[in-house]
């Protein structure tokens, strides 16, 4: 006799069925988006599905397994590229969809830090969330040795030859004091103006246009032929760091200053803020001018600035606890995306 019922403690057969179908659907969208650069639905639609999945797992943790789509950082690396093991893991970001959720995250992070490190002031590094794709650049003694996509966070795809065609990314770091091994993390994007110009050219040539700048950047970077990537206007801004040998860095903002001094491109939109009220203002300001920036954004990333405090908060298997991505309300219409295929 089944003991299943709908009392919120044991999932009903209907809920199990819904969960299994939803998990399969979300996994399918992750492959289409991360591996094939060909989303089947809009981000807003995908976010709704994964949030339903997460809320079922929150109520019924016994349904969630380690291979649940909610536990994955992106997708498995494609076999079209050689695999690259990241020296330090690459993470995704905890996303929040309302100011209330962000306030809850902020209060919780602050309260934990006040408890663990009571004598320290907490400062927040706030930056726009670039709508592109993550890259890890490995420099050895200042020379670019390898470039890899995030992949599943542990293993990425080797896109070195393609990255060598991107003018913004130095092949040799400027200045001195480079560590033996340095993993720089950033976002490759297609500037909005370049994206529109590219689509205009494709339209004139009666070729398939790109759905959005993120899709254009991902499709352009993950080309088998670097000569094709070279024809695409790609840029990058740095947003993190992995392995750094014996280099000592104490904060996110010091890291950006150091990377900028070595010639790496750093976002002009980053600020250091002291309170939730200031963060709230930054969100309003950048929401109002989100289409006036060099690149498209889908939100704002809030990070604890100090590395000691970041370490104290730590990570889950998927995301750091010291950062959150506030997503702006969706603007895209799903119908526009349904007929979009990858442009290669
Ligand atoms: P995410 O894109 O929401 O956040 C994590 C990533 O943000 C990081 O890995 C990094 O690459 C990037 N990022 C941009 N600016 C940054 C900054 N300033 N600092 C730090 N990181 C920055 O998470 P995700 O796991 O890469 O993917 C989820 C996103 O992909 C969601 O927006 C989701 O809607 C979309 N998605 C869509 C579909 C679809 O079918 N449409 C499928 C899967 C995922």
From TrEMBL:
Active site positions, chain numbering? 129
- Top-rank taxon: Bacteria
**Which residues does the record give as NAD(+) binding sites?**
43-47, 92-93, 127, 150, 187, 303, 327
Q: Which family does it belong to?
A: Belongs to the NAD-dependent DNA ligase family. LigA subfamily.
Function field = DNA ligase that catalyzes the formation of phosphodiester linkages between 5'-phosphoryl and 3'-hydroxyl groups in double-stranded DNA using NAD as a coenzyme and as the energy source for the reaction. It is essential for DNA replication and repair of damaged DNA.
Name the UniProt record assigns to this protein: DNA ligase
Q: Which organism is it from?
A: Nesterenkonia sedimenti
Query: Coding gene?
Result: ligA
Specify first residue, last residue and whole-protein length for the fragment.
1 to 344 of 773
